[in-house]
Amino acid sequence: MECTVPEKEQHKKEMMAVQDSMDVLSGKWKIAIISSICYYNKRRFSDILNDVVGISNKMLSKELKELEVNKLIKRSVLETQPITVQYTLTDHGKTLQTIINNLTDWGIEHRKKIIGD
Amino acid sequence: MECTVPEKEQHKKEMMAVQDSMDVLSGKWKIAIISSICYYNKRRFSDILNDVVGISNKMLSKELKELEVNKLIKRSVLETQPITVQYTLTDHGKTLQTIINNLTDWGIEHRKKIIGD
DNA sequence: CAGTATCCAAAGGGATACTG
DNA sequence: CAGTATCCCTTTGGATACTG
Fold first, then answer.
1. Which pLDDT score is estimated for A28?
2. Which of A15, A36, A64, B58 would disulfide-bridge A51, Cβ 3.0–4.6 Å?
3. Which one of B22, B102, B113 has the shortest CB-CB distance to A32?
């Protein structure tokens, strides 16, 4: 019994890990923004603005900065005329792909469930 | 080409599904609350208050109500003295388990990544 | 124990206009 | 196109106290 991790301690660690994730991912828009970039691989500011239903340019700008600071996305300026900006997932950001897929699947099932009630 | 779902349409559906999920799950605390109930199977109000670092009783009360309305958790009053209340996941709520586990794993890796930088 | 009620400061976030 | 700046209302949410 002394050699195994006590169950309660294990749960505490799991809870902390979940909250660590949410520190970076919570907010009304972050997951949706990451999903947009994830599904399209490369995505421009105005594209994401269209993909994420309801977001304003101000919010998008702010959230993109936070995601960049947290090394989940990469911002690349293309020297076109006028300039365009591509957002891509970093390698670290790409590790969220499984979660995005799960959330997509869950969203579809959830919608069925709610309408089907 | 006409018989397959156009790729862009597919991505639009995926984006909508993600946003459907986030409509129910977003907010600073919901995922953490669900995780607490998920990992312990049954959990009382005061337990969750301790599990979710930083949440206030006011917020917990509010978020629990929303999760109950969305049929993700079930509230059961036990006629002890004084009364205790058990929160459990509904069958629908249990379908979030995969996502919770993924977020837990991701949180652990993310912490390593951030500290390791 | 499991909440509710009230007060109030701070943050969120939309609308609009503007810049390089 | 890709943002930034400003105005200003709305929502969030902590602290504290109270109830059954």
1. 84
2. A36
3. B22
